[in-house]
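Notebook p. 47: complex prediction with calcium ion.
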Amino acid sequence: MASVSRVASRILVPFLVVLGALLWLVLGAVAWAMQPPTTEQLATYLDDASLAARAAEARSYGNHLMRPELLERARFKAENLSRQNQGLAPLDPEVYTPPAAWRGMPTTGTVKVLAVCIAFADKAPVTPVETIRSKLYGAGTGSGFPYESLSAYYERASYGKLHIEGEVLGWYTTSNARSAVTETTAGREELIEEALDHYDALGHDFSQYDNNGDGRIDYILVYWTGEHGAWASFWWGYQTSFWATSYSVDGKRLGDYSWQWELYSWPSGSYTPLVAIHETGHALGLPDYYDYDGNTGPDGGVGGLDMMDANKGDHNAFSKFVLDWLTPAVLSRGRRAVSLAPSGEQPEALILFPQADGQPFGEYFLVQNRWRVQNDTPLPTDGLTVWHVDAQTDGWDYLFDNSYAGHKLLRLMEADGLEEIEAGGGADAGDYYRAGSRFGPDTAPASSGYDGAASGVRIDDISLDTVATTIGFRAEAGPGGLPTAALGLLLDE
Ligand SMILES: [Ca+2]
Ligand SMILES: [Ca+2]
Ligand SMILES: [Ca+2]
Ligand SMILES: [Ca+2]
Ligand SMILES: [Zn+2]
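Predicted complex, structure tokens below:
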């Protein structure tokens, strides 16, 4: 009994702290992808000792891992950055083209996604379909910026590279009570197929949602009415893929889909696209950056400071790099004056890449200007965020993730030196590098690699231009790096 509660409290405490951080959220703590448990649910699961099994269920969905296709693409791009840095010709694009079967929703261009709204004989919907359509693909209803609309958010996040369009089908109401649905993967898929067959019979063209032409519909958002169930249970919110290969509609099989409530507190509340914005991040291939399990691996995720952590602000520059929305400048050797525009507005970031000569897709520091503009408007302050990325792979997956690995794939360096996130706490304004802050071998935290060796990376002389919203600073990369060449855009000396 004592050991059960000790294990449980090691899981519980970080979750509670993260839930506290969620109080930042405009729309409440109800909107993660594998949506996290509430404090009330945690108390129940501690009482009945079911928490570990539920955490295992959450892990089984795999939402904490990056899509392999993004991985391959990111590795290819990082290697080319390294080659560019050395004055070498770029690699043949064919060399690293991932298998077609790995492809998911395209990350650039015009992409059509489908939302299907399913109601039950005993659970009537509350939200008009027109409202959902406007908040997914239109201008929203004027409130909730920057989460007013799925497509508007991604238009900003991608600097106009990703245009999300689509359709909402609904409400389709089943002839039976919701309790007639079999609460298994097969039962879930049969329900979705029933709704799709209904609209197919009415003449809807589903082939338009196979944007990449691989024979599978890229991404469907499934909304359902009624009360939510227990955390990580059937009637909860998560993202997964179709198992059934026998089903097709208009010649297309089904691919990824997210499964979520119409309203968390159904029949109360009002619909928001915030969950859809996070889930679409998964459909694009991004992982969750929050910590699923305070009992294993590193703690604290990115402290809530990301759309793929606590549904907060913009996607970070690492995510945007792997999604092809920005290409960072790279400084591998020497000391340079750098000026960065806000990453909420301009596709700019800087990689301090001390291992560019040895492991081009290894470990590095990534710097971006997080001025409170566009999707970053809700963040706590203006300044630089510095990420410690360890994107080494085993040829298939990243070796590191933010839940279970030996250290994080993506770690926010805390300028205040308090290491609160690593203790399961939240990110805050103190974690931004602003005028007077420094980052280097002699600061806390230091710019060491995960092996403990000095990287030679320094950031200092930071100044914020409140008119231009740019941030100037001096950056220094390790002495062992390679010369920086042909990257004059951000590096002015
Ligand atoms: Ca059809
Ligand atoms: Ca497809
Ligand atoms: Ca963990
Ligand atoms: Ca801190
Ligand atoms: Zn998620």
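Notes: The mean pLDDT is 85. DSSP finds ten helices and 13 strands in the chain.
Next step: compare against the earlier run before touching the bench.
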